[in-house]
From TrEMBL:
EC number: 2.7.13.3
Record keyword Hydrolase present: no
Protein name as catalogued: histidine kinase
Molecular-function GO terms, alphabetical: phosphorelay response regulator activity; phosphorelay sensor kinase activity; protein kinase activator activity
Domain Histidine kinase: 260-496
InterPro entries for the chain: BphY/WalK/GraS-like, CHASE3, HATPase_C_sf, HATPase_dom, His_kinase_dom, HisK_dim/P_dom, HisK_dim/P_sf, Sig_transdc_His_kin-like_C
Keyword Transmembrane helix carried by entry: yes
Species assigned in the record: Sphingomonas alpina
Domain of life: Bacteria
Length: 504
């Protein structure tokens, strides 16, 4: 039931997560679209405002040029009729401003081909008109006023002025036409902007509703799952205690079985060792008898008897004794593991720096004999754990590192440690022979060893180390390559719970 619940919650959570991500993506895209529309609308509004201002500037420039031309024509007529200098002064002042006014119009309309054509025609007409004006004014200045009036009456000034007015009106119409086009574009831009805002708002509303419904449904599922988990948790503690008790009983049975088996194996082994000693004594007597028989009656001693007494029997007894000694060591190791498993763990604060220094002192003769060095890198983090078990772990690992150093190069062993949350990791690194990758796990198995065996041992040490690490709530592994040394990594809890507290 618990696994099914967890699996269902996991699937539901994954679906809800994907749905919420999709809704967020849609909402984000909607906001981007609205922002882009606002940007476009703002930009076009600025462009439209600039266009409107430009239109007004062109119209004002056209009106100013038209007024100047009209004022120039009026002041000229007054001068022709009255010959008073004041009219001429006015005409001269106005005529001097006309070129600048035309230049301004040309500058403002330089981007419009139609307006450039209009201003070109206007410039020609104004130039022709100015030439006629200068001619009549010159006649008045010469005192030939009657002739000046006759020339004025014959010239086509009225037609020129009408053309100028028509050109000014056409140029104004062109600017208003452009303004109308820009107004239409502005209205279209506003419609697009508002349409985008409406669509984005609808999408955001739909996304908000869908997200709310999804969250509400997921919340209801979580509430139901929480009720199921609460009911399961109520029974979980009892189930865990029951399973823990079963495991403890099974572990105790295994330990008792190992102890009984080891004890029962020792009885026949003691008999075998005893009879082996008797056979050894008997072999000595037989050998002595063969020696005397060879001295007194060599003919009665056969070659088979001589070989049996002097070679076969001693060799067989030697093999038996070697095997029984090895079996005795194995039984002792099993008894040691069994006793260690039954020993009560007693956590206490441990100073790992002092402990490693003490271990190095006890192994100083072996380390010096190998020409090696033992160093602690930095400061080792303290822990609260079982002193005897931790000492056995570090002693075994450091002693193994010293035993399996490569005699071809100076050896070194480095011990380091670091805290990682509520756990501490210690590393014992050496530059020794190394361990083949295929043997990284088997070296922790009971009675299993790796590589060339030129050191005494039964393959129990690392198995004992792993068992102790497990019992202390930790793990141990190794990283190594042949010929490149090995690094044993031990991870232990920062504080080991007191078994007495667990049983209370």
């Amino acid at each position: 039931m618990f696994r099914a619940l967890v699996r269902r919650l996991g699937v539901r959570e994954a679906l809800v997560g994907r749905a919420l991500i999709a809704f967020m993506a849609i909402g984000f895209l909607s906001l981007l679209a609205a922002g882009y529309a606002a940007y476009r609308s703002t930009t076009q509004n600025e462009q439209h405002s600039q266009a409107v201002n430009h239109t007004y500037e062109v119209e004002i420039a056209i009106d100013q040029a038209s007024i100047l031309i009209e004022q120039g024509e009026t002041s000229r007529r007054g001068y022709l009729i009255t010959a008073q200098p004041s009219y001429f002064d006015t005409y001269a002042t106005v005529a001097a401003k006309v070129p600048a006014a035309l230049t301004r119009i040309a500058t403002l309309t330089a981007d419009n081909p139609r307006q450039r054509a209009n201003i070109a025609r206007l410039t020609l007409i104004v130039a022709d008109l100015k030439a006629q004006r200068d001619r009549t004014i010159a006649l008045v200045k010469e005192g030939r006023q009657a002739e000046a009036l006759r020339v004025f009456g014959e010239e086509t000034a009225a037609r020129r002025m009408r053309n100028i007015r028509e050109l000014g009106s056409a140029m104004g119409d062109e600017e208003r036409r452009l303004l109308a086009i820009r107004d239409a574009e502005q209205r279209e831009s506003l419609r697009t902007f508002y349409g985008t805002l409406i669509v984005a708002a609808i999408l955001l509303l739909l996304v908000a509703i869908a997200s709310l419904l999804t969250v509400l449904r997921y919340t209801r599922d979580l509430a139901a799952s929480r009720d199921v988990l609460r009911d399961f948790a109520d029974s979980l503690e009892g189930l865990v205690n029951e399973r823990t008790a079963d495991l403890s009983r099974a572990n105790e049975e295994i330990q008792r079985f190992a102890y009984i088996v080891s004890h029962d194996l020792r009885s026949p082994l003691v008999n075998v060792m005893g009879f082996t000693a008797e056979l050894d004594a008997a072999t000595a007597a037989i050998t002595d008898l063969i020696d005397r028989a060879e001295e007194k009656a060599p003919d009665i001693v056969t070659e088979e008897a001589r070989l049996a007494a002097r070679e076969d029997l001693p060799e067989a007894i030697r093999f038996i004794r070697t095997s029984t000694q090895k079996m005795d060591r194995l039984i002792n190791a099993i008894l040691k593991l069994s006793r260690e498993g039954r020993r009560l763990i007693a956590p206490e604060p441990l100073d790992l720096n002092a402990m490693v220094d003490a271990i190095g002192g006890s192994l100083k003769h072996l380390i010096d004999d190998r020409g090696a060095t033992l160093n602690v890198e930095g400061s080792l983090p303290p822990i609260t754990s079982d002193r005897l078990a931790v000492e056995q772990i570090f002693s075994n690992l450091i002693e193994n590192a010293v035993k399996y150093l490569d005699p071809k190069r100076p050896g070194w062993i480095i011990v380091r440690g670091k805290r990682e949350g509520v756990r501490v990791t210690y590393e014992i690194e050496d530059n020794g022979r190394g361990i083949a990758p295929g043997d990284h796990q088997r070296v922790f198995d009971l009675f299993r060893r790796s590589g060339h065996q030129d050191q005494p041992g039964e393959g129990i040490g690392l198995a004992h180390v792993r068992a102790l690490a497990y019992r202390l709530g930790g793990v141990i592994d190794v990283a190594s390559d042949l010929g490149k040394g090995a690094t044993f990594r031990l991870t232990l809890p920062l504080t080991l719970a007191d078994p007495q507290d667990n049983r209370s």
